[in-house]
Every structure is written in structure tokens, then in C-alpha cells.
Amino acid sequence: MSSLGELVRHRGPFASVYLDASHDTEDAAEAMELRWRGVREELAGQGADDATLDVMQEAVLTPVPGKPGRALVAARGRLLLDRVLPRPPAVETTRWSDRPHLLPLATWTEPAVPHVVVMVDRAGADLHGYDGRGERAGEVPGDGHPPHEVPRGGWSHRRLRKAAEDTAGRDAARLAAEVDRLVTDLDARLLVLGGEVGARADVREELSPRCRDVLIEVGGASPAEGADDAAFDHAVRSLVAQYQSDLDNDVVEEFTAEAGDPHGRAVQGLAPVVEALREAKVAALLLSDPALGDRTVWSGDDPAQLALREQDLRGLGVEHVGERRADEALGTAAAVTGAQVVFTDAAGLREGVGALLRH
């Protein structure tokens, strides 16, 4: 959520939309236009301005192949977020409000785990890095050629291919050095190495201990032109998703252990969680009810200024306060304070909400 901190500081009100963006049939474009027409009418009925609706419409009607979902947030005629979701949301959301609705992103977006992917054979190599904030970065130096930036887009969306005479893949030591640099720069949690067995072994031997600590090898893939990457793509996505799931489980287990200690770092229930968010003490926000029962809280101009009661905020010297939906206010507070968001049914949370504190 911390990557959205800048977004929530824009002036609202905000239009937040989560919808099915499937484009896999002959009449998909027409179906999308009809779906958007209904969304636009609903937002307009809630008070959304034409400039904001127009910029969202331009984005929505630009098709994304396959059966994805789409998350969009806009305000004052500016598109602030346009994110493709790995699948359509179970429930479509259309909301015009003082705060953007961000909590669904914690469940519907792909895991934000920094990782590096390498595919290698005797003829060449492909190198890809993902920094965990939605931006991809990496370089493959070639003999006598300037570094080549990895294009934006995930591994399965677009691959970086270098010709054999212009690649570090023929020199395992040089390729390993570049992998080491990228793993370090991105603080990668995973290094996925695929390709030919012999070529993988050569690169593995040259990797630093830091890289070997996060290394996972996947067979059955090749960087050769025309190679089918589907199985390798699936393996990479599965590894990243499992890593994120393990992290989330660790948070839940730590929360459960701390909740059993009266002096521990776990609180639950809306009142103590709101207080902890206001004081920027929350390392992880745990939720079992995404809608938070349609409860409300009070907040100020700064999204981190939260309280259950209006007088509590005014007592802290906050002049401009308003009543907000809790599912919006807690999500934006998590974003500006850098708190992780974890959805779980395992913790038995009081009022459906808890927090693991930083200290």
C-alpha cells in the first residue's frame, strides 16, 4: 500500500472503480462500452464531474486482452491509477467519495515481491527485474554496446531478447555479475533461474552468496526465439504468489502470538486500530471484513488523522474533519503510513480488524 501514498494525497473527491475488463470475445468491445455506460451513469448520479468521467472512459475503453479485471482511480480530471488485475473482481465497485477506495488492491493485485528472472542457454540469456512497486527495471550490457533498458511490463507480458552476439549470456561470469547487481539494486527476495541445465549450472557457479540465498531454479524453459514461455511464466507467478502467501501467513502467526501477550504488539477492534494508524505505529493492518461492516470513522485533511469520534480529532487540534467510510479511511491511512495490508479469516479479529504494531 505504501506505493499509493502519493495518490491519496491528491485533492478529492475521487472516483474509484473495480470492474470486469474481459476482452476475449468478438463482441467484447461492445460489451465493455455497455458496462462502462452503466458505471458512468452511476458515478454521475453520485456527483462525479464530466472531466473525471471522461479521463476514466478513455482508459476503460482501451482494451486489455484476456479476462482481467481493472482498477481505476481518478480525481479532478486526472487519472491517478489504472491497474490491470489478474482476474475480474468478484464484486464490481463504483464509488465517488472524499477518499479513494484502495483496500481491494490488497487482494486483487499480483504480489509486490521484488524478484529477478533469468532464462539462459548456450546462445544467450533473458534478464528481467521487478522492483515490487509496479515498475520493472534491469540492464543487459553487450559487447561494445550501451546498456539496454528492460521494457516496462511483466515477464509474461513482454520478454527482453538479446541476439547471441550482443548478450552477456555467453559469458556466465558477466551475466552473473549483472544478475548480482540487479538482485542487490532491487533488494530482490527471489531469483528465478530457468533454461538449459548446463547453462544454468555455469551461471549458478558464478553467483554471489547473496544471490544463491534467494535462488530457485526452474527447468523446461529456453530463451530461444519462438519458445513457448507459458509453463515458465506460470512457474514464476506461482513462486512469487507462494512467497507472498508465506509472508502473509508469517504476519498472521506473529499477530496471533503477540495477541496472546497482554504487553504484545497486537491490537484488535476498530478503536485501538484507528488510534495506532493515527500514530503511524501499524506495521501490518489485518482485516477479515473488507467492508468493515459499512462502519464509519472521522478523519482530517491528512488521511492519517483518524478517530472514532469527531471530538477526539478536534481535541487534537484538527480543524477540518469529516465522517468517512471505514474501508476507505483505513486503506488510505495504511497507504500514507506504509502499513502492509493482509486479509485473513484465521485470526478471529474483533470487529473484523486488527493491527500488528511496529513497536
From TrEMBL:
InterPro entries per record: Bact_RF_family2 (IPR040701), eFR1_2_sf (IPR042226)
Transmembrane portions of the chain: none
Chain segments carrying region Disordered: 137-158
Taxonomic superkingdom: Bacteria
Name recorded for this polypeptide: Peptide subunit release factor 1 (ERF1)
